[in-house]
Amino acid sequence: MGILAANIVAFGQPFQAYMYPDAFLTEHGPLSDWLLVAQFVLIDSKMRGLFTLLFGAGLYLFMERTWDRGGTRWRQMWRLSILLLFGLIHYFLIWAGDILLYYAIIGFLVVPCLKWSAKAQLFTGLIGFVFGALVYSAILSFPYLIAETSLGQQPQFSEAREGMLSAQTSALADAEVETALIRSGDYPGVLSHRANEHGTDPIANVLIFALETFPLMLLGVALYRLGFFSGEFASSKMRQWGWAGLIVGGMLNLGIGLFLKSTGFGYYAMLAAFVGWSSIPQLMMVLGLAALLVEYSGQWTGALAERVRAAGRAAFTNYLGTSILMLFVFQGWALGLFGELGRPQLYLVTILTCALILLWSKPWLERFRYGPLEWLWRCLTYGKLFRIRR
C-alpha cells in the first residue's frame, strides 16, 4: 500500500511527473507542492527501501526451508527466473514502473552471498550502501550544478549545460508522445512505444539502482539471520534505534525537501535528491521503520490489523493487481482519467485502492491458502500443483 502511495503520480500523470512537478498535466499549486514535500519525506524511497529489505529477508527464509528439505540454491535461482518473467510481463504489457524485473536480476547476485556469515553480510551491506550513496550524490550533483545553478553559466560549462537542458527537453517531449497515446485509448500504440523507445530501460534501472538494491537486500538477509525480525533484539534498543532513525532521517529529508521547494523543484535537483542526497536519511528511516514495525506490530490487534496482515500475505497479487486496476482507471480505453487528476485527487485514488486491497484480501485468505499469484509462483517454482483451497 505504501508502494502505491509512492507510484500513484506515475500511474495517473506522465512518468516524469513522479519527480518533476512541472510535468503534471494539471495545475500543481501550493497545496500540491507541500504534499510533494510530505511524500518526499515520508514515502518516496522509504517504501521501496523497506520492500527491498524484506525481499532480502525473504530470500534467506526461502533458502532455510529449501536447505531443510535437502535442496540447493538452484531452486532459488529458478524461483527468481520466474519472478523475472513476471517482471517482463508487468513492464512491457502493464506498467513501466515495474520493480520485479530488477529485483530478480539483483536477487541473482545476492544468492551466491547467502552462505556468508551474517556479520559479513551486514558490514558489506552497510558499506556498500554508503558507497553507493556517495557515488550517486557525486554523479548526480554535477548535472544539477551545471543545469540549474550559476556555475553552469560560466563559458567552460556552456556545452555541458546545453546538453543537459536538451536531454530534459527530450524526456518531456517523449512524455507528450506517450500521453497522447494513452489518452487516445491506443493501448497497442502505448506498448509499441514502450518497447521501441524504452525497451532497454529495465537494464538501465538495474545499473542505476544496483548500489542501493544489492546492499539493502544483503542487509535484509543479515538482519533476518541476526534475529532482528523475530524479536531477538532488546525491545528498548529497538524502540530507541527505531525512533532515532525515523526522526533524524525524517528531519534530514525534510531539510532536503524544503530546499527543493525553495528552488522550484528543478528537474536535475529532484533527480539528485531522489537518488543521491536522500540516500543516507533513507537508510536511517527504513531501518527505523522496520524496527518500529517489529516492535509494535505484534501489539496491534483488531479487525483492521487482521486485514492489513492479510493484505501483506497477498502482497504479490496486490502489487500486480494494483497495476492492472490502474490501467482501468487511467487508460483512455477505460475511465480515461490519465492527466485529469491533480496530486490530492491521486491520493484519493490511493486511499480507495487501499480500501479495496483491505476489503478483498482477508475473505480470500479465509477460503484459500495463498493469494492467486502467490499460488501460481509457488506452483511454477516447484513444478507441481498445490492445493489452494483450505
UniProtKB/TrEMBL annotation:
Signal peptide: none annotated. Residues 223-384 form the DUF418 domain. It comes from the Bacteria. Keywords: Membrane, Transmembrane, Transmembrane helix. The chain crosses the membrane at residues 47-64, 76-94, 100-118, 125-146, 206-229, 241-260, 266-294, 315-338, 344-361. It holds the Pfam family DUF418. InterPro entries: Bact_Transport_Assoc (IPR052529), DUF418 (IPR007349). This is DUF418 domain-containing protein. It comes from Erythrobacter ani.
